[in-house]
Amino acid sequence: MSATRYRRFLKLCEEWPKDESKKGRDLGTFLRQRVASAFREGENTQISDPEKCDQLYESLARINSNVYKEKFPRAKDTSFTGVTVEECRILLATGNMQQADEVKKGLWKTLTERFSSKPEDGPPEKTEK
């Protein structure tokens, strides 16, 4: 039975789309890595909790086959912000996320420098006579 589970997960990995725009954050890549680590011995891997393994597979298979998208169709293909799926995909691409992180770091650095630095070489303090 372990061999059947392994083959089912392999087939799911083959079908699961890979999003090259999300390097290091892609769910398909993560899934492939988890399957490889869970089935280290391939078809000969002993599954400690077969019921949990089967539940996990069924859940992932439902997501992959868009069961919930078809069961609960959306009235519009946008979010509450009005951003379309494609616009969201572009915004969440790894390159754009890295740029956003750099902007945040730049902003954070500016704020910390502004509010945590001591005045340098300011006017000398007046002494009372």
Largest sheet, described in full? none
Cα(first) to Cα(last) distance is 94 Å
Give the rounded overall mean pLDDT: 81
Principal-axes shape call:
extended
Residue runs with pLDDT of under 50 for 5 or more positions: none
Question: What series of H and E elements makes up the topology?
Answer: HHHHHH
Structural class: mainly alpha
Residue share in helix: 55-70%
How many strand units? 0
Explain what this protein looks like in three dimensions:
By secondary structure, the protein is an all-alpha fold. Helices cover 59% and strands 0% of the residues. It is built from six helices and no strands. The mean pLDDT is 81.
Ordered list of secondary-structure elements with their pairings:
Elements: H1 2-15, H2 27-38, H3 50-64, H4 67-71, H5 85-91, H6 94-116
Helix pairs in contact: 1-2, 1-3
What is shown here, in short?
With 129 residues, the protein is mostly helical.
List keywords for this structure.
single chain; mainly alpha; 6 helices; extended
